[in-house]
Write a structure and sequence with these properties.
single chain; 171 residues; alpha+beta; two-stranded antiparallel sheet; two-stranded antiparallel ribbon; 4 helices
Length: 171
C-alpha cells in the first residue's frame, strides 16, 4: 500500500514537470504565432497604403484601366472619405513597423500622429491663411479615411487560424 502511494507521488511529480515544459512550449509557439500574425497585419497595411495619390508632373494619369476601353483611366487622386488613404509622400507607409514585446503581444502601427488623424478624422484643423501674413487660421474638417480597422477586418480570420495552428502544434 505504501509503495503504491509513493509511486503515485513520483508520477505526480513527473506530471508537474511535464506540465511546466508543456506550458513553456505552448507559450513559445503562441509567441511565434503572434509574430506571424503581426507580419500578416503589417503586410496588409502596407498594401492598403501603397496607392498613389497625386498626379505626377506632366499631366499623366495614374490609376487602373476602366471599363470604358483602352486609354481610359480612373484617376486615383486623393482619397475620398471612407477610403483608405492614398500616399503623397510615403511617410506613413515607411513609418509602419511591428514590435513584438515577448508577452504574447505585438504592436503594429505607426508613430506618426496623422496616421490616427486619417483613421478617425479630425473635427477642425487650423491652417495659416495664405493671403494674409497675419496669424489667421482657416478651419477645415478632415473626414475619416480608415485603414487600421478595415485592414484588421480583412485578415482577422487568417490571424485566428494562425494562432490556433501555432498553439495546436504543442499538443
Amino acid at each position: 500500500m505504501w509503495t503504491l502511494f509513493l509511486d503515485e507521488i513520483v508520477s505526480m511529480r513527473k506530471i508537474q514537470f511535464n506540465n511546466a515544459a508543456l506550458i513553456r512550449e505552448v507559450q513559445q509557439n503562441a509567441q511565434r504565432g503572434v509574430e506571424r500574425a503581426g507580419q500578416l497585419l503589417l503586410s496588409t497595411y502596407e498594401k492598403m497604403l501603397n496607392q498613389p495619390g497625386v498626379r505626377p508632373k506632366g499631366g499623366r494619369r495614374l490609376g487602373k484601366p476602366s471599363l470604358l476601353g483602352p486609354g481610359f483611366f480612373l484617376n486615383r487622386g486623393r482619397s475620398l472619405p471612407g477610403e483608405s488613404p492614398h500616399y503623397e509622400t510615403r511617410d506613413l507607409l515607411i513609418s509602419l513597423h511591428m514590435i513584438p514585446d515577448g508577452k504574447l503581444q505585438v504592436n503594429v502601427g505607426t508613430p506618426l500622429d496623422y496616421g490616427l488623424f486619417l483613421e478617425y478624422g479630425v473635427p477642425h484643423i487650423g491652417r495659416k491663411s495664405r493671403k494674409s501674413k497675419k496669424r489667421t487660421f482657416a478651419m477645415y474638417q478632415l473626414k475619416p479615411r480608415p485603414w487600421l480597422r478595415p485592414g484588421y477586418g480583412k485578415v482577422a480570420d487568417k490571424i485566428q487560424s494562425i494562432l490556433r495552428t501555432a498553439v495546436g502544434k504543442s499538443f
